[in-house]
């Protein structure tokens, strides 16, 4: 496929609620991604035919031998649905990777399936100003306005405000 990347995966490896499947080839894996709401990338392990699907908050990981990855479709504008588009816009305009807050918790952490669920949980708390979501552990932390944003050496940590300005609808 013209848009595929060799030896690259997108991680976390599987979207919430999705398990890998065995597919006969890369094209079948790409088709599965295109047919799955919220899928922004696929990662295909050619040795066993494992097809993994990732959402738009996944991060590329190079040097993953025997993996081929890519978008839902090699033609721009195909294969996307409104949830994927909304999340991708929020990722670039509102969310930041590799960041956290100090102090981190003003309330009890919560396990949620996605960064959007974490943001919604923060917005539902009158005192919550910001959240931090760990895409690997799926743990959501909350902070009030008395915190400082700092950089940390991980791509799994995503921070953002309770509500994004210019919310996409």
What does the model show?
The protein has a five-stranded antiparallel beta sheet, with helices on one face. A five-stranded antiparallel beta sheet has the order 8-14-11-12-10, covered by helices on one side. Strands 2-6 form a two-stranded antiparallel sheet. With 169 residues, the protein is α+β, with helices and mostly antiparallel strands. It has three helices and 14 strands. The protein folds into two domains: 5-81, Hepatocyte Growth Factor, CATH 3.50.4.10; 94-161, Hepatocyte Growth Factor (3-Layer(bba) Sandwich). The model has no long low-confidence stretch (mean pLDDT 84). The chain is elongated and about 50 Å long. The longest helix has 12 residues, at 82-93. The chain has helices spanning 26-34, 82-93, 115-123; strands at residues 5-6, 8-11, 21-22, 41-45, 50-54, 59-62, 67-70, 96-97, 99-102, 110-111, 130-134, 139-143, 148-151, 157-161. Pfam families: PAN_1 (PF00024). InterPro entries: Apple, Pan_app. This is Apple domain-containing protein. Keywords: Disulfide bond, Repeat.
